[in-house]
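Consider today's protein:

***
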Amino acid sequence: EKQAMELLSYDTHVVKGLLQTEEYMRALLDMRRPPLDPETVEQRVTARLARQDIFDRRPTPLLSFIMDESVLRHRYGGESVLRGQLEHLLLVGQRRNVELQIMPTDCEDNAGVNGPFTVVMRRDGKMFLYVEAQSTSKLETDPEQAGLASARYGIIRAQALNPRKSLEFIEELLGEL
């Protein structure tokens, strides 16, 4: 992430850490089982917030986030936490270097059916695939695997709502709260 020229992220369970509000982070960390001790929660919140400096870094990286609709409907931490998270997504989604898209649950085709992943391209042209699930993570450095994931992301991007319609969708969700 620190050297990213472009970051492509597809999420199916929770809002990507780079997009999370502090309240949403805390809600997710508080749900962990076995429970995390307070010091670990504080360390993880601090680290996750620090990573968000990617939005203001120069040169500005291109950041693309696609989330399944269900991610935005989970009320982790309660309605006020969700409201704050949705409002935050609207603000971030208006940045010139950010594309935010929603994959509707009524979409009949979804090339992301195998789950969440992130593709990072560095300025030197190297591409990496990062996959995380059930407290395990894997950084794939094989260019072929990263390239296939990038191509799959392009298909997912075409299947999802475009950025403008995605922001309108988030506004509609806010109106339902």
About this structure: The first helix runs from residue 22 to 30. Residues 93 and 100 are 5 Å apart (CA to CA). The longest strand covers residues 4-11.
